[in-house]
Every structure is written in structure tokens, then in C-alpha cells.
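Pasting two entries for a bug report.
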Amino acid sequence: MKPPVEVSVFLLSLLVHHRLSCLHSTGGASLNSIISLVSSLFVVFAEFTFGGMVGLTNALEQDRFISGFMDFYLKMGEPHLSTSYAVMMSYWEVAHLILLLTIIHRMFSGKSYRSLGLLWAGSSIANQIVLIPGVVIGKYGSNIRPAFFRNAPFFLVSFWAASLFFSRPREMPIVTADKIAAEQKKGLLSRPADLLLSLLLLGAVAFFVFRGFVVLDCPLDACFTYIYQYEPYLKDPVGFSRVMMLVYFFYAVPLVSILLYGLNTPGCSWMLDWTIFFAGAMAQTQWCHIGASLHSRTPFTYRTPADKRWPVIALNVLLAIVPALLALRCRTNPAFLMKPVPKGQSNDDKKKN
């Protein structure tokens, strides 16, 4: 019996050195016919699936669920993978594995996988954009081994895959012209969900800017109090938290500002894509940040203080939830984001045309 293709790819990732022969034997079809059915994205997903399995193995070993798999590689290849941030990043590979196998299943089933691809691309790029600079400028920057440079192809390929997903035709939902016109006539006060999301996004921008100032050693008393009493993890010499806050400061702030514009301007259909991409990025980074600030591998002096733990966790969880809610809002009620209906053209007119 021919197994599902996503199962074949999962097995393929475990036996990467023999991946082509495994695919040939488990798929029940010739190698040439398999290659003719899928795009180059399939090869990318297979490699990322293997990387995800390695990451999960590392996380389980660092937390002492298993042993004897990663010692040599950590010593001779990437010692930073033993840090709390890298452990949480490795656990997040489970989410990547689920996304990748789902995409592969939909790819072979002839179903759309564009939105899932954008979600994965946002998460994967956010992963690398913090990891690579964090290693270079942080505690492990003086101990970089050749194996570290394997991250560069993963980083570049993630951008390439994202560009492919963005360039694919968007599947626009069917919305009547009358509904589009009615929604786009409403002001922000007439759209309470959008008003609430706008306020939450403004709050996120303010918090991104504030924490950017904090890691840039702003002398204000508020910054000093925050870094010592609420999130001392931001001064962890490993460097990942500092890089993440700077990424938020220089990249997330402009992007959220653009998303705010799109949420308040009719016809910004690009919101359907960028909100998904941003939701994936924020979910990955906030998972790693929250987990690392509480993990036992983080020195005690840099962990979130026990008396401030729940407010800090709640605030950081909210930063991950708001982009997801925004993406969900755009997907479930896209009428306001559709292209404006030409003046004087009703739904009946469109049907006649």
C-alpha cells in the first residue's frame, strides 16, 4: 500500500543521506515521476524537515530526556545550541514540522497551501534573523565554527520560498459588491473589532519602541527599572534577546505601522498576506523569548523575577496573540480589504458584466 507522501517525507528527513533512494522505495513510484510532480519547494521542505528533526533532538537532549546524540556537534559545531534560547527555538521546530508536512500533503493533494507557506516563511525568517546576528555579536561570537555557516543557506532559502509564496496568485474570497461597498463606508468607530485591534497594535508599537530603548541602554529611570525588575533577560550576554528587541524596533515597528494603515484604509488586499506572515514571525520569536526567560539554562540573575512573572508573561503572550487575531480578522471578514467597487456599480451591475 502506498503511504501518504507526507509520511514518506518524514521518513526521508530521518535518513537524509539516502533521501532519494528512500523516496523511491517508500513512495511506490519512480523517482522521475515524483520529481515531475513537485516543484523545487518540495526539496526545500524536505531539507527543512530534516533540520527540524535535528532541532527537536537537540531540545530533548538539552532538557535531559535523551542523551548521546548532540554532544560532539555542540562541542565542534554550534555550541550556542545549548543555550536556553536555542532550546526553545529547537522546540518550536515541532510547529515547523507540522506546517511543512501539512503543506506537503496539500501540495500533493492539489489543494492551496499559500497561506500555510506564508505562515511558515514568517516563522522561519524570524528564526534565522535573530539567531545569526545573536551568535555573531553575543557571548559565542568568539567561538564560531565552520558548521555555523550552514545557517546562511537556510536563511536565504527562507527568503526565496517567501518570495515564491507572495508571488503566487492570491485566492480571494467571494464577496458581493454591495457588501464590499457597505463595509468600506464604515468608519473606524463603526467597526469595534478593528478599533480594538488598532489600539492593541498601537500599544505593541509603543512597547517595541520602549524595549528597543531598554536594550540600547537608555538612561531613563523607566528603562533602568524595567530591565532590572521585570525583564533582566534582556541583558543576557548570550545576545539573542538584545537582537530580538532591535529587530522589533527596526523592522516590526514599521511593519505594524503599515498594517495599521491597511486596517484603516479600504482596499488594502495585501493585508491578507502580510498579516499571516507577521503572525508566524511573532509567534516564533515570542515563544523563544518567553521560554528562554524562564528556562533553567538561563542564569538565575537573568530570569524573570518570580513576583513579576505573570504580568511579564501575559504582556509577551499578548504580543504573540494580537498579530494572530489580526490575521484571523482579515481572513474571516475581508470585505473591507477588497478592492473598492467602482462608483455607481452595484452588485447587479457586476452580475450583468
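Entry 2 (this is the one that rendered wrong in the viewer):
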Amino acid sequence: MKPSATAQAPEIQLSDNSEGNNYYTLIMTDPDAPSPSEPSLREWLHWIVTDIPGNSGGSETTSGFSWLQEQVTHTSSSGRELVPYMGPRPPIGIHRYAFILFKQPSTPFLISPPTVRNNFSTRNFASHYGLGLPVAATYCNAQKEPGSRRR
């Protein structure tokens, strides 16, 4: 994917067919920061949205991330943006961008946002807040777009 096509945060849409009022947390990271061959800043945190209602699905269309359409309505109506969205901007090479979805143990989900984006650990975050194992995950690839050449 081109980073310019992912500048805006995707809309989140979930279809939870269970009987309960479930809420979810979505985390987006880059495990290849700053470069795939030397990911010394892995995982780079790009986004955290909590309190996403499981019944936020519908016939709405998503913008930007069409490949995430089945899993991912606007964060203002479908969750609380804990860490603001930062679109993919790989400095070098092809980077993977992972979207991991967890079912929350309760709502509202009272957590503190991480103080830095580098060296984030999805596994440690999930463990610390009792999120358990992911219920869904997907990823995309992005690479740096070539600059415009002037002649």
C-alpha cells in the first residue's frame, strides 16, 4: 500500500454475533521499525482504539483501508482513540503494519496511554491489561513512496 492512501485513520466496523454487549481494543503497530533488516524500534505503535462496541458493524463503507473493511465506523462513534492514529511512513524497505483486535474484559476500559511509540510490546500491553489472546488480526505492507522529480 502507498502511505499516501493510508493518511487518514480507517473506520472501524465490527460484527459480533454473540449475545453479550462486548467491547474491543484495536492496536496497530509496525514490527519493522526503523528498517526490516534492523528493527531496533520494534514495535512502533501507530494506533490504539479502546471501547469499540461489538455491534458497530453495519452497511457503512470504509474509506482508505478497503482491505480492512470486514474488520475495521468512525472512532468518535465506535470507540475511544487512546493513541492518535499515525499512518504508515516507512523510511526504508517494505514494512508490515499489524492490526490486532482484543476482546476487553470490561467497559469502559480504564488504561493509560503509553508515553512513547517506540519499542511498544503488544504482548506485554495485552498481558498487563488482561486482554488475553487476540480475537482477530490482519496486516498490510507499505513502502516509502518515491519523491517527485523535478527536471
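Dev reply: Rendering is fixed now. As a check, the viewer should reflect this: The chain has a mean pLDDT of 82.
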